[in-house]
Amino acid sequence: MRSTRHAAVASLVAPVVFFVLLGIDGSGRSAFAQATSGAQSLNITPGARADGMGRAHVALPEDATANWWNPAALADRKDRVFSLMHAALVPGLADDVYYEFLGYSMPVEGWGGIGVSFIYLGYGKSIATDGTGRELGEFTSYELSPQVSLGTNLAEGLSAGITLKYVYINLAPKWATQDQQAGTGDTFGADIGMLYRMKALPLLGWPTNVGVNVQNLGPKIAYIDQDQADDIGRNLKVGFATRFFGQDADPSGASPRRFRGLLAYDINQSLVYTDETPIHNFGAEVSYDDMFALRLGYIQDTDGDITDTTFGVGFAVSRFTADYASVPQAEGLDRVSKFSLSYNF
Predict the structure, then answer these.
(1) E strand or H helix at 33, and its extent?
(2) 167, 175 in Cβ contact below 8 A?
(3) Is 303 helix (H, G, I), strand (E, B) or coil?
(4) pTM for this prediction
(5) Neighbours of 274 (CB within 10 A)
(6) Spatial contact of 34 and 233, defined as CB atoms under 8 Å apart
(7) How confident is the model at residue 5, as a pLDDT?
(8) Alpha-carbon distance 295 to 265, whole Å?
(9) What is the pLDDT of residues 86-97, one digit of tens each?
């Protein structure tokens, strides 16, 4: 049975957290699993390109979101890149509940590539009251997570990577709780990824990547009572991405087509709730001359009640790339629009 301390903190932020947990769009676990675990900011997928492709991206990260999707991809970083994303998570219900991602990656001679990223998840504002219902003031609940990543080549076509992360959660300040105990908690974790790049898929001859990422390995997180600590979202992500037409799919260089086609697939299995049905992610992209892209995807999350299509577009001008995606949520909630921007230099 939860202690009165924990219950007091939970009662203050329950309405806001309830909406966030309903609408949150993690890649590795169902909505139920997310609602019963800690550190929700670690589960939300960054990058509108990935979201437009149904979140099938573990074998395809090509910008600074590789810090989250698969740090092994940093091993082949050729230039420096900034990536950022903004998303309002529960539009129409709570406009001040939002997610921000900022990432940077760069090559390091002799090592491969490194990346740093910062995640912020705002749960919105709440009003604290005393036992008589008198308002004490307004406060904001949030999570933040700085992360650092490294990717390096192990052999031809094979790379490995690691992301180390810290997460801090502030549900309520001590003045807003009945027993004057701050509703805060922190923990740390790690992702371990691998990426294998095949020059040609057997029989078809298409260049294909295969990726694996074990996410959020680390201790539980507690807010007040250590005996009531929650697991963070440990998850196994496996997938592939293949280019099926265009110059990339023709090593001879004979293809005159400036269009490129891409297919991707991921499967996610929770390592906390192992009895859950795996989540399947399907994605496709058609691009023209690296200037314009159309994307379509599908998410099959049976336990989380999300089985619907995603779609998105991307534009590149000079060194800037802008992406938009529309993604579904659990039944009864509006779709979420995501916007991201990258700059290569």
Answers:
(1) helix 31-35
(2) no
(3) coil
(4) 0.84
(5) 9
(6) yes
(7) 39
(8) 13
(9) 998 887 777 788
